[in-house]
Amino acid sequence: MTDDDGAGAAKAARWEPGAQILWRYRENAGDGFHICRPVTVVRDEEDLLAVWMAPGTECVKPVLEDGTPVHREPLATRYTKPRTTRRDHWFGTGVLKLARPGEPWSVWLFWEPGWRFKNWYVNLEEPRTRWRGGVDSEDHFLDISVHPDRSWRWHDEDEFAQAQRAGLMTTAQAEAVRAAGHAAVDVIRAWGPPFGDDWPSWRPDPSWRIPALPEDWDRTPAHVSS
Predict the structure, then answer these.
(1) pLDDT digits (tens, 9 = 90+) for 95-144
(2) pLDDT digits over 60-89, tens only?
(3) What is the Cα–Cα distance from 19 to 2, expressed in whole angstroms?
(4) Which residues form the DUF402 domain (predicted)?
(5) Which of 63, 150, 169, 208 lies deepest, with the highest CB count within 10 Å?
(6) pLDDT tens-place string over residues 24-58
């Protein structure tokens, strides 16, 4: 994936279905990237970006400096111990990610083996910025799961609170994230898009190859746009 990061290209270009891009998250304390997932574009339109992360995709994820998975570290020190990144693979079923420009969340769809739809997952995050090679965001810790019977619940409220105690989020930022979560809940209760859409019956093109993780996955774009 080469990239000239032209400003005009970043603002105007739309990706064709089947294009391979990167979906990345910045560190919450710093300017580097600690999550990178190569994905395939399903749809890229003015009001929606939809991408597919296939099973077996090689990704980058954060780990503690000694290699311990982040989720295994006690909550009290989870955000204070030194970290690094590690290449790994996404196992299990794939994930369909849906994002609307300017919205402070993306919606992920999960399936059980055999394509039995499991649930939607609302990932609260910074509105994504586009560049020639993909989209970048910052995760906001708090999430919401939504099930086919329209029930929903908050996730990771303990991590959301600990991130504030660790200084990764100010009170004002936390209030904005919580407000974004309530806005997402309003969409869920109204069964608005994408929950009322037919995405659970979507299937990937069998001809798509799994995107490769480039060596320069953490490069900094010269220009970005929303």
Answers:
(1) 999 999 999 999 999 999 999 999 999 999 999 999 999 999 999 999 99
(2) 999 999 999 999 999 999 999 999 999 999
(3) 13
(4) 71-192
(5) 169
(6) 999 998 889 999 999 999 999 999 999 999 999 99
**Under 8 Å between Cβ of 188 and 150:** yes
Q: Residue 113: name the closest of 55, 167, 165 by CA.
A: 55
> What's the rounded Cα separation, in Å, for the pair 181 and 158?
15
Q: How far is CA 222 from the centre of its chain?
A: 21
Q: Are 87 and 60 contacting, i.e. CB atoms less than 8 angstroms apart?
A: yes
How many angstroms separate the CA atoms of 162 and 75, rounded? 7
Q: Assess contact for 193 and 199: CB atoms under 8 A.
A: no
Residue by residue, what is the 3-state secondary structure of the chain? CCCCCCHHHHHHCCCCCCCEEEEEEECCCCCCEEEEEEEEEEEEECCEEEEEECCCCEEEEEEECCCCEHHHCCHHHCCCCCEEEEEEECCCCCEEEEECCCCCEEEEEEEECCCEEEEEEEEEECCCEEECCEEEECEEEEEEEECCCCCEEEECHHHHHHHHHCCCCCHHHHHHHHHHHHHHHHHHHHCCCCCCCCHHHCCCCCCCCCCCCCCCCCCCCCCCEC
Locus of tokens 């994504």: 128
d(CA 39, CA 106): 14
Q: Is the peptide bond before 17 cis (omega within 30 degrees of 0)?
A: no
